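Lab notebook, bench 4. The sequencing result for the construct came back, and we need a structural model before the next group meeting so we can plan mutations. Quick request posted to the team channel:

Model the 3D structure of this chain.
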Amino acid sequence: MEKITLQVKGMSCVHCEKAVVEAVTDLGATDVVASAKNNTVVFTYNPTILPLEDIKEELTDMGYDN
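Done. Here's the predicted structure in token form:
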């Protein structure tokens, strides 16, 4: 398992945070915490099962820059 912090530009409210947390969790990450204030999402994931690029692509598809 690996813990990572990604920049997520474009989150502006708690609803954005919730959407990001749900999306990253649905992909298989755990301990997901998003912060609109810091423009970050922190999570734990298994890179052999869930490639980081999949997470980045999902965030991009949602309209966020990372």
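The CA atoms of residues 19 and 62 lie 9 Å apart.
Will bring this to the meeting.
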